[in-house]
Amino acid sequence: MVAVRTSIAAALVLALGACASVTETNPSRTATDMLLVNRAAERAVEGLILPVPQGARIFVDETYFQAENARYALSAIRAALSEAGYALVRERGESDAVFEVRATALSLEQMRRVFGLPEMRVPINENFNVVSLPELSIYSNRDRMGVAEFSGFIYDTRTGMPLGAVTPMIGQYKIRSHRALMVLTWGQQLAQPGEREPGSSWREF
Asked: How far apart are CA 49 and CA 51, in angstroms?
């Protein structure tokens, strides 16, 4: 009888201890990576003005706009043109002018500064075997910055004659994190959704 009760009690413990597990995907880019690059793209096109009168019908030619996450950047360009008072059209033949855009840069830049010895890989023999040495630092910081640069030119739809060029549109969005004695960390570890300005990394704990 005691054995039966023990078995029942064990079964109840196992049943109560059961839990559901959630499978998480591992995409190639993190949310922070995407937020940094997209915010840089938005900053790049702030105040975009074309060398044509406001109200002109503009067709945005994206043929040569090649970059990862290009669709968001192109939408940001279209939004900036709409805010500036231009009429966007979907067909080239409906436009007064064609705005051909291209991406110089649309990616993430990272930089790490170390006061001490950085992490290193040291060869130990002639067979190129290496050993990894951990970082030994008093202080280090890491910058993660989205960088966007676009350029383009505009020409008359009917004649193909140039109407002018657009100076490079440049935008950056950066967050910084800090580490002291390889243990204490503070600063912006992640880009926060909805946050337009990262603020001061020294006050982020």
From this structure: 7
Other residues' Cβ atoms within 10 Å of the Cβ of residue 142? 18
How many whole angstroms separate alpha carbon 179 and alpha carbon 141? 6
For residues 33 and 69, the answer to whether their CB atoms sit within 8 Å is no
Nearest CA to 187 among 148, 118, 138, 140?
Answer: 140
The answer to whether residue 159 scores a pLDDT higher than 60 is yes
What secondary structure letter does DSSP report for 191? P
Is residue 128 within 8 A of residue 162, CB to CB? The reply is no
- Residue 196: predicted pLDDT: 84
Side chain identity, residue 13: V
User: End-to-end CA distance of the chain, in Å?
Assistant: 58
Q: What is the average per-residue pLDDT within 166-172?
A: 94
